[in-house]
Known about the structure:
By secondary structure, this protein is α/β, with parallel strands linked by helices. Helices cover 36% and strands 20% of the residues. The strands form four sheets. Strands 3-4-5 form a three-stranded parallel sheet, covered by helices on one side. A two-stranded antiparallel ribbon has the order 1-2. β1 (8-14) and β2 (17-23) form a beta hairpin. The longest helix is centred in the first third of the chain and has 21 residues, at 54-74. Bound molecules: guanosine-5'-triphosphate. Guanosine-5'-triphosphate binds at residues 1-2, 27-28, 85-86, 88-89, 115-117.
Amino acid sequence: MCIAEDTYTSEEVVDQQPVLMKVMDTADQDVPANCERYLSWANAFMVVYSINNKRSFEGCQQYLDIISLHSKSIQHDSPILLLGNKLDMEQYRQVTKAEGASLAVKHGCLFYEVSACLEFETVQHVFHEAVREVRRETERNQPVRPLFITEERPFLHLVTPATVASKHGLASCTLNTLSMVNYKEIPSVAQAKLVTVKSSRAQSKRKAPTLTLLKGFKIF
Length: 220
Ligand SMILES: Nc1nc2c(ncn2[C@@H]2O[C@H](COP(=O)(O)OP(=O)(O)OP(=O)(O)O)[C@@H](O)[C@H]2O)c(=O)[nH]1
């Protein structure tokens, strides 16, 4: 697929949000060479072969191997999309869809067959999927939000339940149930001690079993 050798930027709207994409076309050779530049630069990779050219498919396998090795070495997976291009050349097909799909599974790639010269929408969809996949990957790599434990003390006047809930991303439906408690971030694992406590609430037969279970432990 022709993209200029140097980079260019393009503003796309994906899910109502504009996304600035920088694209670098690297593959003006059949075998990977000087890959470091784009391996460390890219947020996502699109590896493209022609369905009517077995050699280009074999070339892709080398690129995918290099990307996989790089991801392992930096312990970070950037999304990879494997594209079988020139779908309009079906009658000259040398690479089956199953072969493409199987290579994609092997390397954990998304897989599409497209025709760059005939189907603008499909190609656009593929680029948008690449952006979405980068977003998903970024979200997956966000540090886990801390859990919160509660203590049965009334809120300070200045801190409303709504403030606390929105600050920590708690769903609004928890507000009523948790409105009369304090929130504390759970400490790091190294500092945490788990101690069994029995509170009067824990022993109350009128409370729901899940509440009893929750109140059966205190982490501090
Ligand atoms: N039939 C058909 N031809 C295509 C399609 N996409 C690209 N081509 C043609 O394939 C040839 C190579 O296209 P390029 O976009 O230069 O391919 P490339 O792999 O980027 O090539 P390099 O820039 O040398 O790396 C050109 O003649 C294109 O017109 C397609 O979807 N269908």
